[in-house]
Write a structure and sequence with these properties.
Blueprint: H1 2-28, E1 50-54, E2 57-61, E3 71-72, H2 82-87, E4 99-107, H3 119-130, E5 140-147, H4 158-172, E6 176-178, E7 187-191, E8 195-196, E9 201-202, E10 211-216, E11 222-228, E12 236-243, E13 248-255, H5 262-275
Antiparallel strand pairs: 1-2, 3-4, 4-5, 5-13, 6-7, 7-10, 8-9, 10-11, 11-12, 12-13
């Protein structure tokens, strides 16, 4: 009798252990509490804006504006290991999620932006068809914006410019010489004063000898850095600038014929970003430029 009683008690204890284990398993399988879904501003077609925090400000970028997609801080790079990409889980979207970068098309002539399902989409297509094939200046600039979050990195191009000059001298034996006259308010540097030392004539190629232009702030820090072609059938400029208020770096690429408007471009791009600012809850602080 005693051995039978012990067997019964052992079965009861085991059953209780399994029952408790099953309860634990059931609890562990419950979905984790999800983060609250943020409020999204939408366009007339119901498309949601892209949201996040760019540098120091929360923003809501109108749907159809971004060229490609927005990259957030921590997102794997384009050439990252596919296994890493597959495992990566981006934090829930919010107006505090830091944006690393995004791009858009800016129209130089009036300060507008390209937006799909808006008149500017037709304008952009028309300009591609009627201007580019005939060598006429294309009035659209490609813009990339990068949030700056490392407090140890200065918001200027002081090192970048000096290092570019050093590399040109050490690798290509090219001296960049400051020109006496500024150009559109920019300090200009030309490779060997614009002369190829081997021929004694103006450069026939600007692959390594692009004109370089800078603008300093009152403290003497280089805030704008522009490199422009000058020997091509259609010359382009790569234009970079920092904005201290936003804590961002901006890259712009455009036809050199629009170089005289470089300051206007910088101001208009900041004006566009300002129009996308929102509160941390997503409330717009002004009228969005580019909204469809």
């Amino acid at each position: 009798m005693k051995s039978g009683y012990k067997k019964i008690m052992l079965i009861v204890v085991l059953w209780q252990v399994l029952l408790l284990a099953g309860c634990d398993y059931y609890v562990s399988e419950q979905p984790a509490q999800q983060a609250p879904v943020p409020f999204y501003n939408r366009d007339s077609r119901g498309r949601a804006d892209t949201i996040g925090k760019l540098g120091t400000y929360s923003i809501s970028i109108p749907a159809g504006v971004i060229d490609g997609w927005a990259r957030y801080m921590g997102d794997p790079g384009d050439f990252a290991d596919p296994k890493i990409k597959a495992r990566y889980q981006r934090p829930p979207e919010s107006y505090d999620l830091p944006i690393e970068s995004f791009g858009f098309q800016y129209r130089i002539t009036d300060g507008d932006v390209y937006t799909s399902f808006r008149q500017t989409q037709q304008d952009y297509r028309r300009d591609n068809e009627t201007l580019i094939p005939y060598g006429k200046p294309f009035p659209w600039a490609s813009v990339s914006v990068y949030g700056q979050y490392d407090a140890t990195v200065p918001l200027n191009f002081n090192f970048t410019v000096q290092d570019d000059f050093r590399v040109s001298k050490e690798i290509s034996n090219i001296d960049y010489i400051q020109q006496e006259q500024p150009l559109y308010g920019l300090t200009v540097y030309r490779a060997n004063n614009g002369i190829d030392p081997e021929t004694g004539e103006p450069w026939k190629s600007d692959t390594l000898t692009k004109d370089r232009m800078i603008k300093k702030d009152q403290a003497g820090n280089i805030k704008t850095y522009i490199k422009c072609e000058f020997t091509q059938h259609k010359n382009f400029c790569n234009h970079m600038f920092y904005n201290d208020n936003w804590h961002i770096q901006v890259w712009i690429s455009y036809n050199r014929s629009y170089l005289p408007q470089w300051q206007e471009m910088e101001g208009n791009i900041i004006k566009i970003l300002d129009s996308w600012r929102v509160s941390r809850e997503g409330k717009l602080l002004g009228k969005q430029i580019g909204k469809a």
